[in-house]
Write a structure and sequence with these properties.
heterodimer; A: 519 residues; alpha+beta; Cytochrome-c3 Hydrogenase, chain B; 3-stranded antiparallel β-sheet; two-stranded antiparallel sheet; B: 164 residues; alpha/beta; Rossmann fold
């Protein structure tokens, strides 16, 4: 959509700009909380251990870190009883599929029980707050209100079928509840869990190149979260980005280029599948050859990590005041718990990635109602336009040739689409999604992508239960196998994580379905 | 949110119709909707690839019938029927939140105390998991059988179902 708007030089109205920020903002907040409680927390929280917790001590722990009201002894006892009834129900399968009891779990039972309670609360919370999308004319996660040129949902304070005064009031209530959970549950939980895993501030960092396209467009044309990239963990310099620096390589990917020593800019991009791997099912892939369906995107030949950590680091290094305040607050809290100074370099790690996602959620959640106020001010000034008008939908109004790039920062990271229009048709269209940056294979020069470099040297306590590998991979929030949900009759694992070498050069081939990620 | 307060039975077809036989659950739902009259107390639901979002349909549901493609290790087209505690309900090992599926949803429903009283899973071993909107011939040939098993189960739960 933004790619076409860029190609055809369409400027979206002010209200559409604000609505896009609101919709994307609540998407971040919901997505990050779901990622933490429903995927990533289970890498740190041992659910079975919660059955042995003392509910009274759990209540004391919860009340010591937050004034969130659901924290009584009875409340935690109720959650524990349900868990016990379940574990005792004779269904032995339930926990066979994860790594419960693994020696890398370090939390006391009470912290585990508190996290299980919040796992359940987050389910209800996310369902409530994401109603903001329905109110603005969109269904999460595929938001239908977006159109080239603006938004389809009209603004009319007196109409029931449009964004009206009731909508605005409801949005404000939803966002107040969204922020309360983030401030009083999510952030305190991260700060309570992190001190038990401070060794993970030194694991999973990778090469330390970070890219943000910038997003949340402001009235003056700048981005609230800034654009740029950082090289080699150097926070003293943010390099300006020109999207023409971006190219995609296929030397180790199952595609054909005429010259595979070079990358191609997406406007000239090609996607010619060329599978040369072994016949499935297979146990091993040779990383010296082609070994994945992912292409290898690069900025001036540098692999780049994208996502919340990249955005927070680029903002931090660019002098974004609120990001600096919250990052420094979190580092100070962790320093207190550790009894030693923990500086920004700790962010280059698995723990840093997880902390950055929470920090971002805090600053976006508090921004939501500011954006609603911006919308109110705009409507009060008499502006109700949400779309630039259909003139540019008519191909007769297009130039003979045009090209555009649409950039956004999806919750998982930098997302770019490139379009070339010729003779009123799409001549080429390419997308680079966040997980392609993070999951990138090696390029023609042999440079690894972020997952691979982050996993180098990861200690693995139990080789056939590589929980530590999952921690780092999950910290990136991978988007994979979106649409395959095959159920297994015996409850056996359908996801396989294999570790080729437990010492150096750990190169786990994530043997998923081979579907290209969408995001 | 279920708007009809009379709903007691939920027939849930899950799967991805873009991946051939993976979509069998959804195809069964479409088939039943096209051929049968169902009472208000039965709700047919195309669950697609939703995972935890299906959780809230469990509220007020007494009987849950799930139709899905199931990996059994048997010949394609092999049918499977699981009841109550036999149906997998647990947190699965996964790479991405997009992989949250029915077992995770049932686990959360049990912990929240909203799991249905009666639970039946009708499964079938898929043949093709290629990108296609069409079922494989093997699985398509089992459609009538699957539909009939759903109708029979609805009868056992006391619902009157008639042909259109």
């Amino acid at each position: 959509m933004r790619a076409v708007e860029d190609a055809l030089k369409i400027k979206v109205p002010n209200n559409a700009r604000i609505l896009r920020n609101i919709i994307e903002g609540i998407q971040y907040v919901q997505d990050h909380v779901i990622h933490f409680y429903h995927l990533h927390a289970l890498d740190w929280v041992d659910v079975v251990s919660a059955t042995t917790a003392d509910p009274k001590a759990t209540s004391a722990l919860a009340q010591s870190i937050s004034d969130w009201p659901k924290s009584s002894e009875d409340y935690f006892k109720g959650v524990q009883d349900k868990l016990l009834a379940y574990v005792g129900s004779g269904q032995l399968g339930p926990f066979a599929n994860a790594y419960w009891g693994h020696p890398a779990y370090k939390l006391p039972p009470e912290a585990n029980l508190m996290a299980v309670a919040h796992y359940l609360e987050a389910l209800d919370w996310q369902r409530d707050v994401i109603r903001a999308h329905a109110l603005l004319g969109a269904k999460n996660p595929h938001l239908q209100t977006y159109l080239v040129g603006g938004m389809s949902t009209p603004i009319d304070p007196t109409s029931q079928a449009a964004i009206n005064a009731d909508t605005i009031i409801t949005l404000k209530e939803l966002f107040t509840r969204a922020k309360a959970f983030v401030d009083k549950v999510y952030l305190p939980d991260v700060l309570a869990v992190a001190p038990f895993y401070l060794d993970w501030a030194g694991i999973g960092g990778g090469d330390g190149n970070f890219l943000s396209y910038g997003d949340f467009d402001q009235a003056d044309g700048s981005y609230w979260l800034p654009q740029g990239y950082i090289l080699g963990k150097n926070l003293s310099k943010v390099h300006p980005l020109d999207h023409k620096q971006i190219s995609e390589h296929v030397a180790h990917s199952w595609y054909n280029y005429e010259d595979e020593k070079k990358g191609l800019h997406p406007w000239d991009g090609e996607t010619n599948p060329n599978y040369t791997g072994p016949k499935p099912p297979y146990e091993f892939l040779n990383t010296d050859q082609k070994y994945t369906w992912m292409k290898a995107p690069r900025v001036d030949n540098h692999a780049m990590e994208v996502g919340p950590l990249a955005r927070m680091l680029v903002a931090y290094a660019s002098g974004h005041q609120r990001v600096q305040e919250v990052v420094n607050f979190v580092l100070a809290e962790l320093s207190k718990a550790a009894g030693a100074t923990i500086g920004p370099e700790a962010l280059f790690s698995t723990l840093g990635r997880t902390a950055a996602r929470c920090i971002e959620t805090v600053i976006v959640a508090e921004k939501l109602n500011e954006w609603v106020d911006e919308l109110i001010a705009s409507i009060k000034s008499g502006d109700t336009q949400t779309h630039a008008g259909p003139d540019m939908w008519n191909p007769d109004n297009w130039p003979a040739e045009a090209e555009g790039w649409g950039r956004t920062e999806a919750p998982r990271g930098a997302l770019g689409h490139w379009i070339r229009i010729k003779d009123k048709k799409i001549a080429n269209y390419q997308a680079i999604v966040p997980s392609t940056w993070n999951c990138s294979p090696r390029d023609a020069n042999g440079e690894m992508g972020p997952y691979e470099s982050a996993l180098k040297g990861t200690p693995v306590a139990v080789p056939d239960q590589p929980l530590e590998i999952l921690r780092t991979v999950h910290s990136f929030d991978p988007c994979m196998a979106c649409g395959v949900h095959l159920m297994d009759a015996q409850g056996n694992e359908l996801v396989k994580v294999s570790v080729n070498s437990p010492t150096t050069n750990v190169s786990p081939i994530l043997q998923l379905s081979g579907l290209k990620s969408r995001d | 949110m279920i708007d009809n307060p009379n709903i007691r039975t939920l027939v849930l077809g899950v799967g991805n119709i873009l991946v051939a036989d993976e979509g069998i659950g959804v195809r069964v739902i479409e088939n039943i909707a096209a051929k049968y009259n169902l009472p208000d107390s039965v709700m047919l639901l195309d669950g697609g690839t939703l995972g935890l979002d299906l959780l809230y349909y469990m509220e007020d549901t007494e009987n849950l019938l799930i139709i899905d493609a199931v990996e059994t290790g048997c010949e394609p087209g092999t049918m499977l029927r699981l009841e109550d505690e036999q149906v997998p309900a647990f947190m699965t090992l996964k790479m991405s939140p997009h992989q949250v599926g029915v077992p995770d949803m049932l686990f959360a429903a049990k912990l929240k105390g909203i799991a249905p009283k009666n639970l039946v899973l009708l499964g079938i071993q898929p043949e093709s998991l290629e990108m296609s909107l069409e079922l494989s011939a093997t699985i398509a040939a089992k459609m009538d059988d699957l539909v009939w098993q759903v109708i029979e189960q609805l009868g056992k739960w006391g619902h009157e179902v008639t042909l259109q």
